[in-house]
Amino acid sequence: MRITLLLLLLLLPFAQSEAVMFRASIDESRWEMESSRFICRLTQEIPAYGMAEFVHEAGEGVHFALRPTQQQQISGMARLQAEASPWQPGAAPHWIGEVRANGEGALEVSETFAKGMLAALYQGMTPTFTTDQWYGTPELLKVGISSANFQSAYSDYLSCVAGLLPVNYRQVARTAVLFPPARADLSDATRQRLNLIALYIKADDSVQSIYVDGHSDNLGRRLLNRDLSKKRAEEVTRYLVQQGVAEDHIVTRYHGERYPVVPNTSAKNRARNRRVTIRLERE
User: Fold this and answer.
1) φ, ψ dihedrals at 145, nearest 5°
2) Which CATH class name applies to 169-282?
3) How confident is the model at residue 133, as a pLDDT?
4) DSSP H or E run through 280
5) What share of the chain is helix, strand, coil (3-state, %, to 5)?
6) Of 177, 188, 189, 196, which is closest to residue 245 (Cα–Cα)?
7) What is the pLDDT at residue 5?
8) I need a surface site. Which of 50, 90, 121, 235 has the fewest CB within 10 A?
9) CATH architecture of 16-162
10) 54: part of which helix (H) or strand (E)?
11) What pLDDT score was predicted for residue 71?
């Protein structure tokens, strides 16, 4: 028994040294920063393997992706932990989590794990993915993200994040604001939502058209409902223009009770139908 344990201990370093390892050296480690009010992208090329990227989009949290140049290098699960960098002899590794590769062999990491990776990099450690399924073989593969030259890039990243818009295009491209029965005035919640939409429109030059469509429920006379939907749409348009949206980019329409989003069979459903929709279209 003692002989068997001794052999295992002797063979362990050898087995670890047999892993296929991809990681940028200190000289190769470069962090590239792409900055705008819409997205912050922090990337590092991993020689002979692919690209590592942290992406923080407006209105969302940071996430990380490891994308191989040649697909299918990783299948199944990969272990993610922060390991000691070459200049940190003896530093203990710490576990971050497990990640499943997608159909193309890329590893996409959630916000929680991505934040753990950023913290490890700032501390000078090497976030490392390990799997025993390299190209579908039992070969052990390790892919490390080098922390060399990271801290200055991280400062740029934080500055970029501080300047992001509070929302992104997907979050404002389709919006519905609701109204009380027989009313066309804007609630405080509606104004707050319209403020975000106006802020985004003014920042994104690719938004060329804004469609504002008024609707009503089916209570009351049809012509009065049509007039009410018109007042609602015009009130939304007026507010957007007051917030600096170009009026000639807005198309204002009204439809009365013609296009319910749900059947007008209950008070809850009728509340959903008393709405104005705002739709943004890019060029």
Assistant:
1) -105, 115
2) alpha beta
3) 75
4) strand 275-282
5) 35, 30, 35
6) 196
7) 42
8) 90
9) Sandwich (2.60)
10) strand 50-57
11) 82
Strands 141-144 and 20-22: parallel
Q: Which residues contact 244 (CB under 8 A, 6 or more apart)?
A: 198, 202
What single letter denotes the amino acid at residue 173? Answer: A
Report the side by side order of strands in the sheet with 126-131. 20-22, 141-144, 126-131, 77-83, 94-100
**pLDDT tens for each residue of 204-228:** 999 999 999 999 999 999 999 999 9
Angle at 98 between CA 94 and CA 104, to 5 degrees: 135
Residue 90 · residue 84 · CB < 8 Å: yes
pLDDT above 90 (res 1): no
Domain parsing of the chain, residue ranges: 16-162, 169-282
The pLDDT of residue 72: 77
Coil, helix or strand at residue 53: strand
Distances (CA, A) of 282 to 205, 236, 241, 257: 9, 20, 18, 28
Cβ 229 vs Cβ 214: under 8 Å: yes
Q: What tokens does 115 get?
A: 């934040």
Look at the block and give the residue holding tokens 């047999």.
18
